[in-house]
Amino acid sequence: MSSARCRDLLATFAFFGSLPASARATLASEMQTVRLAAGSVFYRQAGRCPQVAFVAAGDLRVFKLNEAGREITLYHVGSRDVCLVNVLCAFLDLDSPATAVAETEVEAAVLPATRFRAWVREQKSLHDYLFGRIFERVVDLMTLVEEVAFHRVDQRLADCLLRLASGGSSGRSTVHCTHESLAQEVGSAREVVSRILKSLELRGVIHLRRGQVEILDPAGLADLRQSGTALQFP
Q1: What pairs with residue 57 in β-bridges?
Q2: Dihedral angle over CA of 56, 58, 60, 61, nearest 10
Q3: Closest CA to 183 of 156, 202, 206
Q4: Suppose 16 and one of 10, 37, 172, 221 were both cysteines; which one would form an S-S bond, judging by CB atoms 3.0 to 4.6 Å apart?
Q5: How far is 188 from 157, CA to CA, in rounded Å?
Q6: Could you tell me which residues come within 8 angstroms of residue 214 by beta carbon, excluding any fewer than 6 positions away?
């Protein structure tokens, strides 16, 4: 891919416009654009990150896998964003503690890790942008730890459904997902999530279809998210 396409992708990132014109041209010439099909692995847990991706479009899911094969989603990387694990492992030349997989088709501009380290040290605007994103992502991870430690699975699932719903917290909406993918999002077993979903369906809060969850009562989900009483299974 041409440096012109890399320049177009990078132009969507706030730091790029703050670089000197010569630096913008050089950075674009050193990068390549890549497209990842849905389901493609960008980096693997315990592996290295030989390049850093500036995601222009799409969705990367970053997750942790334990010895029992269970997954928990740490965060998602969307358009005009970079991945915390990717950035830190490439900069520090460390093995990755997590895996990143494309949830949808992803288009990104990528830079070799060796050049990335040099650019971060040389360009203050890039340095400041990355540290700002690192701070925001650390706050997100602290929130995740708090939710896992102090909130029940049914509360986390209710919050997840409302967050994924296209209609937000008002009106009917449909979440396209599987029980397995929801379990990965909330860090629980699929069987537990399936039981909670069935209980919510019996109460008229949701309607289950293959690969879909239709939210019939967003207010009911919001109440469960705040409730101090655990959901009773059928």
Answers
A1: 107
A2: 140
A3: 156
A4: 10
A5: 10
A6: 172, 173, 174, 175, 206, 207, 208
